[in-house]
Write a structure and sequence with these properties.
Blueprint: H1 6-17, H2 19-26, H3 32-43, E1 49-53, H4 61-65, E2 69-74, H5 77-86, E3 91-94, E4 107-112, H6 124-134, E5 135-145, E6 150-158, E7 162-168, H7 171-180, E8 184-195, E9 199-209, H8 213-219
Parallel strand pairs: 1-2, 1-4, 2-3, 4-5
Antiparallel strand pairs: 5-9, 6-7, 8-9
Bound molecules: S-adenosylmethionine.
Length: 220
Amino acid sequence: MRTVDPTRIVQQGYDDLDDTYRRWVERARDGYRSTFLTRILAQVPEGADVLEIGCGPGTDAAALADGRRYVGIDLSDIQLAHARVVAPAGRFLHGDVLRTPFPPASFDAVVSFYAFNHVPQDRMELLFGRLVSWLRPGGRLFGSFGTLDNPGAVEPMWLGKADMYFSSLPVASTEALLKEVGFGIEFAETVTEIEEGQGPATFHWVIATKPSKDEVQLRS
Ligand SMILES: C[S@@+](CC[C@H](N)C(=O)[O-])C[C@H]1O[C@@H](n2cnc3c(N)ncnc32)[C@H](O)[C@@H]1O
């Protein structure tokens, strides 16, 4: 049996997609993602430290970096090259969020649009544990998640150009895991939209909060 390395497939896929992904996502800017971005910008104040996971070609990097200390991380060097152009004020790292170390309590917000659905289901608990530790008390995670119980599968020639790996948990499991590692769910909405060339796609949009020091004391 051939073993599949999800990280390698995703990295290679986004390198191969290059401009094809950037142009495709540009045409989807007016979808629910813009409503969610407006919420993020209203809730994350000027001067905040923000980490964006899977920033890709920098679709939201310029808006997030405006007045904030922004770090974007992505597996694809090719996508990061686009991001660096659109958000020159940002700091960009080439790496895997499952392996890159950040000091505890170094961010006020962690943001991720459409990247968690590339992380294998069985790594999500590890990932959430890392995110909660990187956030300061009272910090927030803003993310979109898949909704299907998909243990991991490769979609051949995604967007007509590159093989791509997808995986996701059902909505209730994502929320249960977030709570298990210490997050509170502040907001959650499941939205179906038509993706160009792909058909209907459903995502689970979540704002999860790391309890503040006072909340932790009240609970204990
Ligand atoms: C669908 S694109 C989303 C890009 C951008 N956030 C947007 O909405 O247009 C997913 C991005 O997540 C990145 N990614 C996926 N898994 C990752 C991981 N484990 N670590 C870092 N980046 C990852 C991919 O390289 C890709 O650029």
